[in-house]
Amino acid sequence: MPNIVTPNTTEGTETGLKKEVRAHWEAESAGVRYGSSDDDLTFYRQVRDSRYQLEPYIPGFANFQDFAGKDVLEIGVGAGVDFSNWVDAGANATGVDLTEAGLAHTRQQLQIVDAEPDSYKLLRADAESLPFEDGSFDLVYSWGVLHHTPDTRAAFAEALRVLRPGGTIKAMVYHTPSWTGWMLWAIHGLLRGHPLKSPKRLIYEQLESPGTKAYSNQEITDLLLSTGFENVSADTKLGPGDMLTIKPSDRYQSLPARVIWKIYPRWLVRLLGDRFGLGLLVEARKPAES
């Protein structure tokens, strides 16, 4: 297991925006709204099943089984579904999250399946200031997280630092242009009298936690290259937000929202393919030592 340099609870270092981001995800870890059972085992199975039904490309992108015996860091464990797979696949798995809620869900999942406590580490930490030594991991993995932290560039720089030479990062960040961005523009821009606000700006203001960012393929490629990564690839995927197959949050329970959910032309979105998907799947490598 990688060495932890110093405990990092992020206390005293969070900016106003980062506090807002943490508060959002403390209130509801990603995916838990899909669990409805009072039985813990069933609840987490529901969360797990919904995740891979809504985003079936995650297992193929992560390739959990390929990292058995490898040191893997997941940044942003959320409800713990992917992290549980790293542990189950035999990786030396370390998970960090900005929230206590995410860590609690992840620990609960692992305890339910009797995962060996020595097979993983979980701690609260800030993606922009990871408490690990340089070159600690073979893989850094992060799904739908790094676009939420205020300084995404710093988070990628930290991922580069803690990777071993030749190590890999696999991350999903949000993409623009996307169907989700256009829907936010229609609802929060056009219909509210702000048609000049861009979809990217409305993703920042309205999508999940405040300050959420979205990138074009070229923007994320340039960001990773300028951070020091090489062999960058970026691929777009339709997400559940693009298809409106997500379970709507409390803010979208009005009658107009329910009508939109019902009449939304999912067939057309699917027909046009992944080009305007919200998910931007990025893979890159830390240069090997010369």
Describe the structure concisely for a colleague:
The chain has one domain: 3-Layer(aba) Sandwich (Rossmann fold), CATH 3.40.50.
Walk me through what this model shows.
- This protein is of the alpha/beta class and 290 residues long.
- It has one domain: Vaccinia Virus protein VP39 (Rossmann fold, 3-Layer(aba) Sandwich).
- 40% of the residues lie in helices and 18% in strands.
- It is built from 12 helices and 8 strands.
- α7 (179-190) crosses α8 (199-206).
- The longest helix is centred in the N-terminal third of the chain and has 15 residues, at 40-54.
- 43% of the residues are buried.
- For the termini, the CA-CA separation is 26 Å
Helical stretch count?
12
* CATH topology tier name: Rossmann fold
Give the C-alpha Rg. 19 Å
The arrangement of helices and strands along the chain is HHHEHEHEEHEHHEHEHHHE
Q: Quick one: CATH superfamily?
A: Vaccinia Virus protein VP39
| 3D shape | globular
Tell me the strand percentage band.
15-25%
Provide the low-confidence segments as ranges: 1-12
> How many domains make up the coordinates?
1
Mean pLDDT: 93
Tell me which oligomeric state these chains represent: single chain
- State the major sheet: 8 strands, mixed
